[in-house]
Specification:
The complex is a heterodimer.
Chain A: H1 2-25, H2 28-53, H3 61-77, H4 82-104, H5 109-129, H6 131-134, E1 140-141, H7 158-181, H8 183-193, H9 195-200, H10 205-231, E2 233-234, H11 241-254, H12 259-276, H13 282-296, H14 301-309, H15 311-317
Antiparallel strand pairs in A: 1-2
Helix pairs in contact in A: 1-7, 2-7, 2-10, 2-11, 2-12, 3-4, 3-5, 3-10, 4-10, 7-8, 8-10, 11-12, 11-13, 11-14, 12-14, 14-15
Chain B: H1 2-32, H2 39-55, H3 60-83, H4 91-112, E1 128-130, E2 133-135, H5 137-159, H6 161-171, H7 173-178, H8 183-205, H9 217-230, H10 235-256, H11 258-275
Antiparallel strand pairs in B: 1-2
The chains are: A mainly alpha, B mainly alpha.
Chain lengths: ~325, ~290
């Protein structure tokens, strides 16, 4: 048992050391890709709570990711410090997630799926038409982040952005792990696998699902907010089906219902995306084939499949 | 009054396309319990193949027939490749498989062509005048095709032996298996039929929009909204819902603003789900997980 305990600390610490050393070993462009990966790790880990752990057909990924980018970006253009814009994005995600979830989580699977798409379309409609606030079709520029804690100066270097991303992603990751293993995480699992049993155990299924939607929305919004800072622009069209497909792929390819798997999926997909995005069509074909291969052959994703092979290794990560 | 009738014709025409989409989605959903997220891609594939053939010099009618047959074949391929191997898996997995097929089909077309192109209409003229009313005859063809397809399907399911067998297996899959119905063949038929309807819808709509790799996104989502309005899994409901979505879109465009038209139906769906979580007349029964 003590060996297991030691193992459970060794791997994450080793990964963290690698993550800290990375920007000094890579060139600026690659550092930037990793910074982007941190934004997506936050989003994917959160999205997994609703889609994976609670087993909801949540098509909300793009909607709340976009909401975070919009709220944080808009506040940033007004000169609000970055700490506050990120907090505002989280709050906006949680509040809209609560309002949305309160009326929708009681719906059956496919109805719920459709409400996610509808929400995405309605938000997009708002971005495109409320030009005074949102800048319409072409969106608006997002200034470089400036933290009060760092004296209010703007951060521009890729390395600085990388470390901010790391500081956001690591706590998000750890909290997601803790939630997954807590009473809440277990209630999601029972509610997913056997709603009737959950009711019998005194779990309020409706409340458990609502909590999954609220938490995942807050996570997605934070990821989206940081994504906005990195992309320097809020573009409404970035938060439609393609973004949703990308988020789905991260979870499926990395491994549903695993915090480590989702995070791994985010890193893999962001690297893929950098090289594939320029080939119109080809990226869709490759994503489609990977997604199909994953559901047909590795239903637990890369991480799940690998961890089945190396059980000991997996024990050390869990 | 004149404009009202014009809006009505355009709305019903557009609605017929959505109804055909929703009908195909519902047929697949009821027999397989899978919501086919590649339906928009099949719609696009129908229009794309027909247009390519017409541009290559094939006659309109023959091009349409070949395109529909090709899309029906794609439907059969999806059945064998992305549905049957996942028969006993959870819904999330099955839905992702159809999402993947959609991505592959859209990717192939996107790779072949990047531009948006117009498709020639079935009838040569752009507008017809009856008294004071002017409209695009394409809308009448859309309505006509919906009536014919709907009637043919109703007759098929009610009076033919194959139709009765399919109804039996959609009502009770386990029971159908027990009395010796080959449910796998039923799945194949329904995927092919659903794909055929999507292709017809795409070919009908193409002359009023533009043909491109992503042209299927909006009709797909609109058809989902239509199914929600009419009640998931209900066949008459899907047709009524489709027509309603068409009317809401066209009416919203004309009477309020061109921006509202695109979302009027979705707002209606959202409100409806809040008030009546199972749609206008849906039982919701067919959405339940059901296995062989």
């Amino acid at each position: 048992m003590s060996a297991l305990r030691r193992g459970s600390v060794a791997v994450p610490v080793a990964l963290l050391i690698v993550a800290i050393a990375l920007p000094f070993l890579l060139n600026g462009y690659h550092v930037f890709i990793f910074s982007m990966a941190f934004a997506y790790i936050i989003a994917a880990v959160g999205f997994d709570m609703a889609l994976g752990r609670a087993g909801l057909l949540a098509f909300t990924g793009s909607a709340f990711f976009g909401l975070g980018a919009f709220v944080a970006g808009r506040l940033a253009t007004l000169g609000v410090p970055t700490e506050l814009t990120l907090l505002a994005a989280i709050a906006a995600g949680a509040v809209l997630g609560f309002l949305y979830g309160a009326v929708t989580v009681r719906l059956q699977a496919y109805y719920f799926a459709i409400t996610g798409i509808v929400l995405m379309l309605l938000l997009n409609f708002f971005y495109r038409n409320a030009e005074a606030i949102t800048g319409g079709y072409s969106g608006f520029s997002i200034p470089a982040p400036s933290f009060l804690l760092a004296g209010g100066g703007t951060l521009r270097s890729a390395t600085a952005m990388y470390f901010v991303g790391l500081c956001l992603a690591v706590p998000a990751f750890i909290v997601a792990r803790l939630i997954g293993r807590s009473r809440v995480g277990r209630s999601w699992r029972v509610a997913r696998e056997a709603p009737a049993v959950a009711e019998g155990l005194g779990i309020n299924v409706w409340r458990a699902r609502l909590l999954a939607v609220v938490l995942s929305s807050a996570y997605l919004a934070l990821g989206g907010a940081w994504f906005g800072y990195l992309s320097l622009r809020f573009l409404p069209e970035s938060f439609m089906f393609e973004q949703l497909l990308l988020l789905f792929l991260m979870l499926i390819i990395g491994g549903l219902r695993s915090v480590t798997g989702s995070a791994l999926g985010a890193v893999i997909l962001i690297w893929f995306n950098q090289y594939l995005a320029e080939f119109v069509g080809v990226s869709d074909i490759i994503y489609g084939i990977s997604l199909l291969a994953c559901v047909l052959l590795f239903s637990r994703g890369i991480y799940g499949t690998l961890s089945n092979r190396f059980r000991g290794f997996r024990e050390s990560l869990l | 009054m004149t404009t009202f009738i014009q809006v009505l014709i355009a709305g019903l025409g557009q609605g017929s396309v959505y109804a055909l989409m929703a009908l195909g989605l519902t047929l697949i959903l009821r027999s397989t319990t899978v919501l086919n997220f590649s339906h928009g891609a099949l719609y696009m594939a129908g229009a794309f193949i027909a247009l390519e053939l017409i541009r290559a010099g094939v006659g309109y009618a023959l091009a349409v027939v070949i395109a529909i047959a090709a899309v029906a074949l794609i439907g059969a391929i999806i059945n064998f490749l992305a549905f049957q191997p996942l028969l006993h898996k959870e819904h999330v997995t099955q839905v992702f498989a159809t999402f993947a097929m959609s991505s592959i089909i859209v990717g192939i077309v996107g790779y072949v062509t990047v531009d948006q192109r117009g498709m020639p209409p079935i009838l040569p003229m752009q507008s017809v005048r009856v008294g004071s009313i002017t409209f695009n005859p394409q809308y009448l063809i859309m309505i006509g095709v919906l009536v014919v397809a709907g009637t043919a399907l109703a007759l098929f399911f009610r009076y033919t032996r194959a139709g009765v067998v399919i109804r039996a297996s959609t009502d009770n899959l386990r029971g159908a298996t027990l009395v010796g119905i080959n449910v796998r063949r039923v799945f194949l038929i329904m995927w092919t039929l659903g794909a055929t309807l999507a292709a017809i819808a795409g070919i009908l709509a193409a002359p009023t929009t533009l043909v491109s790799a992503t042209m299927g996104d909006t009709p797909m989502i609109t058809a989902l909204a239509a199914m929600t309005l009419g009640g998931f899994g209900s066949i008459p409901g899907s047709v009524i819902g489709g027509l309603l979505m068409g009317l809401l879109e066209t009416g919203g465009n004309f009477y309020v603003s061109t921006q509202l038209g695109g979302v009027a139906g979705f707002i209606a769906v959202f409100l409806l789900l809040v008030i009546r979580p199972r749609g206008l007349q849906g039982s919701g029964r067919h959405v339940e997980v059901r296995r062989v």
